[in-house]
Amino acid sequence: MDSRSYKILVTGGAGFIGSHTVVALHEAGFVPVIVDNFSNSQPSVLEGLEKITGHAFPFYQIDCNDRDAMAEVFAKEKLHGVIHFAAYKAVGESVREPLKYYHNNLNSLIVLLELMAERGVQNLVFSSSCTVYGQAEKLPVTEETPILPAESPYGNTKQISEEIIRDSVKAGMPIRGIALRYFNPIGAHPSGLIGELPLGVPNNLVPFIAQTAAGIRPELSVFGGDYETPDGTCIRDYIHVMDLAEAHVKSLQWLDQQSGKSLYDVFNVGTGRGNSVLEVIKTFEEQSGMPVNYKIVDRRPGDVIQIYGGVSKARRTLGWEARRGLAESMRDAWHWQQQLGKEA
C-alpha cells in the first residue's frame, strides 16, 4: 500500500501545531483528515492550508468528546493512523477550571482509543509536553528523567494521558503509540499563510512579542529578571513548529516499520539547547528590525526556571532532529504577524 493512500486523522488539525503537521503530512505523501471544533482556532486556517498545499483535505467540525460523531468519521474514512492534538492547553485556565481540563483532555483520548480498537486503527502519535518533567533537578531532561508531580491540571492531564496509552498497550490493546514530549513550539510556515493564531491575549511568549512589535500590545511583561540564569530570565527550549510537525511524520513512519500489534514509547522533541526570554526578544528584534517594548516584572507563580531537552533518542530511533534555528523561527513569526496585519 502506497503511503499516498494512507489517511491520517489529525484532531485539532486547524490549531497551531496541527495545521503545520497537516502540511508536513501532505508533503510526505499522507492524506490528512482534519477534525476540529474551532474552540481555539479559526476556519481561515483551512484556506491557508489549501493555498499552501493546493488541496482541500477532508474536514469535520466536531468535538472529539462526541463519540457518535467521531465514530462516523472512523466509519467513513479508512484511517491508517491518528495524531491527537485536540486538547485545552492554557496552564492558568487549567488551575482555575480543572474539571474542564480533565473532562476534555482525558475523555477525548479515551474516545479515540476505543474507536481505534474497534476499527483496527493501530498507529497513534500523541501530543504530550515537557511539562510532565516539572522543574527537573538535572538538565537536559531525557526520556529517563523522573516524572515529577505536575505543576498544573493541564500538565497532569498530559501525564495521565501518557499513562492511559501505556496501560492500554500493556493490557493488550492492539495500539502502537508514541507520545511526543514537546518543548516550546514557535515560528510559522515560511509562506506566512498559517501560524500561531491565539484568540484574545496570547498566553505564549513569541506571539506576544510579535504583537508588541506590531503595536497591537503596548508592552511585553517579562516575568522575573532575578532567576539563577545568565541574564536572570527563564530559559526554554524553543523549537520551530515545522521541525515539530516533521517529528510527527517521522513518528508515523517509524510506527509503520514496527512489527507486532502493541507498543508504546516516548520521545523528547526539542532542539537540545535553551534560550532565555531576553535572548528570544533580542533575536526577534534582529530578524524583524523592530524594537520590542518590554518591562521586567515580578516572577509568575508556577514558572519553571529553566528546561531544555536531550533529543538523542529521537535522532537515533526516529531519524529526526531539529533543522531550523531561533533566527529562522523569529523571522517566520514576524512574517506571519505581518500577514495578519494586512488582513486586519
TrEMBL record:
Residues 9-332 form the NAD(P)-binding domain. This is UDP-glucose 4-epimerase. It catalyses: UDP-alpha-D-glucose = UDP-alpha-D-galactose. The lineage of its organism: Bacteria, Pseudomonadati, Bacteroidota, Cytophagia, Cytophagales. One of its GO terms (biological process) is galactose metabolic process. Homodimer. Its cofactor is NAD(+). One of its GO terms (cellular component) is cytosol. Pathway: Carbohydrate metabolism; galactose metabolism. One of its GO terms (molecular function) is UDP-glucose 4-epimerase activity. Keywords: Carbohydrate metabolism, Isomerase, NAD. It is an enzyme of class 5 (isomerase). It holds the Pfam family GDP_Man_Dehyd. Its EC number is 5.1.3.2. CDD domains: UDP_G4E_1_SDR_e. Belongs to the NAD(P)-dependent epimerase/dehydratase family.
